[in-house]
Design brief:
The protein has 176 residues and is of the alpha/beta class. The chain has a single domain, classed as Rossmann fold (3-Layer(aba) Sandwich). Helices cover 47% and strands 19% of the residues. α4 runs antiparallel to α5.
C-alpha cells in the first residue's frame, strides 16, 4: 500500500489475549526505542472513546471509529507502539509490524486469575488463546510478512522479545 506521507519512524501494534504481556512489552520497548507507547484501554477511558460498559465482560465497549479518529494524526506521524487486544479495526496502512504475543494456557490462566478474572471473562480469554483467535485476526487483517507471533510466558521471553523488536526498529527503513 502506498502512503501519502512517509513516516521516519515505524508504527508497531502489539496485540494478544489479555494477560500475554502486551503492556509490559510495550512499555519496555518504548523505553528502549524512544517510540511513543499508546495503551488503547487507557486512551478509551481517558478520552471516553466508548459506548458504555459491558457488565458480563466487565469492560468498556470501545467505539472503534472514535479511537481511529483520535489516533489518525499520531499514526501518520509514526513512531508509535499501539497496545491493544484487538487489531482488525485499525487501518492496515498504520502499521509496519504487528506482534501477536502468545502465552501457554496454564500461565495465562494463573495471570488472569490473579487479575481477578472469573466466569465468562476468564473462559472467553482462555478460549481465545487456545484457538489463536488474535493471530488469525492479525493474519487476516494485515500483510502476512508484517505479522509475527512471539512467545510470552516468562520475563526472559519478554526481554528477548524487546531486544528482537528493538533491533527491528533500529534496522527499519521507510517503504519507498
Amino acid at each position: 500500500m502506498v502512503q501519502d506521507r512517509r513516516r521516519n519512524r515505524p508504527n508497531i501494534l502489539i496485540t494478544g489475549t489479555p494477560g500475554t504481556g502486551k503492556t509490559t512489552t510495550s512499555t519496555a520497548l518504548a523505553e528502549s526505542t524512544q517510540l511513543r507507547h499508546i495503551n488503547i484501554g487507557d486512551l478509551v477511558r481517558e478520552k471516553k472513546l466508548h459506548d458504555g460498559w459491558d457488565d458480563e465482560l466487565e469492560c468498556h465497549i470501545i467505539n472503534e471509529d472514535l479511537v481511529c479518529d483520535e489516533l489518525e494524526d499520531l499514526m501518520e506521524e509514526g513512531g508509535n507502539i499501539v497496545d491493544y487486544h484487538g487489531c482488525d479495526f485499525f487501518p492496515e496502512r498504520w502499521f509496519d509490524r504487528i506482534v501477536v504475543l502468545q502465552t501457554e494456557n496454564s500461565v495465562l490462566y494463573d495471570r488472569l486469575t490473579r487479575r481477578g478474572y472469573s466466569g465468562a471473562k476468564l473462559s472467553n480469554n482462555i478460549e481465545c488463546e487456545i484457538f489463536q483467535v488474535l493471530l488469525e485476526e492479525a493474519k487476516e487483517s494485515y500483510p502476512e510478512d508484517t505479522v509475527v507471533a512471539l512467545k510470552s510466558n516468562t520475563i526472559e521471553d519478554i526481554t528477548t522479545n524487546v531486544a528482537t523488536l528493538t533491533d527491528w526498529v533500529r534496522n527499519w527503513q521507510p517503504s519507498s
